[in-house]
Design a protein that fits this description.
With about 130 residues, the protein is mainly alpha-helical. It has helices spanning about 20-25, 30, 45-125; strands at about 1-5, 5-10. The protein is built from three helices and two strands. The protein has a two-stranded antiparallel sheet.
Amino acid sequence: KTCINNIVRPVWEDQLDNICHSCYDDLPLFVRNALPGEMNQMSSSGLSFSVMLGDSINKLHNEIDALRTKNKQLEVNTLRWKSTTDKLSNQWETEKSELTNRFLTLFNQHKARHVETQNELDRLKGKRPRTE
C-alpha cells in the first residue's frame, strides 16, 4: 500500500507488471488504475478512486442485466422446446398406434389368404380342410 495525498492506494508489483493488454482489459477499472507504470494514466485522488469504483460497479450491473436477459430468453426457449417435445410425443404415439393397426390388418389379411390357400390345396389333395 502507498499513501498519496493521505489516500491509501493498493499497489501490485512483480506478478502484474508484465500483464498483457488483453488480460488488462478484463480487469475491473479500480484494479487497472491501481497498477503501477504506464497503464495507470489517471491522477491519484479520492474522487478518481470513487469514480473508478462506480464505473466498475456500473459495468458489473450491466453484465448482470445482460445475463438476466439471456437467462429469461433461455427459459422461454426451454418452454418452447418442452411444448414441442410434448406435441411430438403425442404425434409419435398416434403414428405408432396407426402403424401397429395397419400392420395387424395386413398380417391378418395375409394370414387369412394363407389359410384359404392352404384349405384349397388340401381340398385339391383330397384331405380334410384346416380350421385355423
